From TrEMBL:
Keywords: Kinase, Transferase
Matches recorded under PANTHER family: GLYCERATE KINASE
Keyword Transferase: yes
Family note: Belongs to the glycerate kinase type-1 family.
Enzyme Commission identifier(s): 2.7.1.-
Protein name: Glycerate kinase
Enzyme class, spelled out: transferase
GO molecular function, one term: glycerate kinase activity
Organism: Ruthenibacterium lactatiformans
Gene3D superfamilies: Glycerate kinase, domain 1, Glycerate kinase, domain 2
Claim: Kinase is one of the keywords in the record: yes
Single biological process term from Gene Ontology: organic acid phosphorylation
Amino acid sequence: MKKVILIPDSFKGTMSSAEICTVMAQAVQEYYPDAQVHSVPVADGGEGSVDSFLQAVGGEKVSVTVKGPYFEEVPAFYGMLPDGVAVIEMAAAAGLPLVGERLHAEQTTTYGVGELMAHALERGCKRLVVGLGGSATNDGGCGAAAALGAVFRNAAGEAFVPVGATLAEVAEIDLSGLHPALASAELVTMCDIDNPLCGPLGAAHVFAPQKGADPAMVELLDAGLAHLADVVERCTGRDIRQLHGAGAAGGMGGGMVAFFGSTLQMGIETVLDTVGFDKLLEGADMVFSGEGKLDAQSLLGKVVIGVARRAKRAGVPLVAVVGDIGDNIEAAYDMGVSAVFSINRVAVPFREAKPRSKSDLALTMDNLMRFCRRMGW
């Protein structure tokens, strides 16, 4: 009996990871009806991450009412996996869809994200996976920290919950009252960008304009994050100013490290650890992965390469089924990719290829399965 693992990234704007898994599984089972097919939809930390993890390993979607981006009450959720791991996507409480046209990066908060974390801790979760992506915020994670017991004080000694516009007012940070369950919990933050907290490549300059910030506001937000970094270092001893990934989600990446001592980890590594991928590889005959385009950027550790490295260590062949194949990807073969196939069957512009992508994927997988059977696999 064959054991096949399906673990593709989404084809951005075309097919979700779950949709790709479904198409791949149908093709495999058409030719190998008795095969054990394990689908692992990949989440990148943004919207849909909780659902992807629940689909991959099961568990419960927990509904909670928390503070939204403007401190209003909003319905939110997180995922509790069977082994007591909580998966939290910050977009559920602080995401752009929650603000609609009310784009004001200087006013929004991550407070509700902290409330989700607290709820999971109080249910006994000992490992929290927090996905960064799709945020409407630029508060450096201060809101989340406040929800979990951190106290921010201004020069007059008054406690307040900082937002982007008031980061420069933070004079002292007191973490002594943090939720006690944090002390025995492991926090992992899914973060696939390496932007620093502030500066030309920082959170404000790169991401705040899409959250409603004009050039003047970008400068104010950037200065606020720089000030926050100084206070964090003075009060906690942690230097987050140039930390790779600190600028993710309006500085939430830096805040997760500064306030909670979280690990920042590539999304695919978090997924693989959380679903027990190394164990899943035991006895596997083939892994199918894929992404919209396999190119030189992919070699830095995105989904296909992250999966391939582990498959290589386990001695399991991996086939990458992708939308496009870029130049200079030969190193992928040394990293564990056995073969790469594009689903593009005809030379047409993307706008014409997009509507037929699902059927093209199905036909490509059908060809691969025909070949595998013919070769006696």
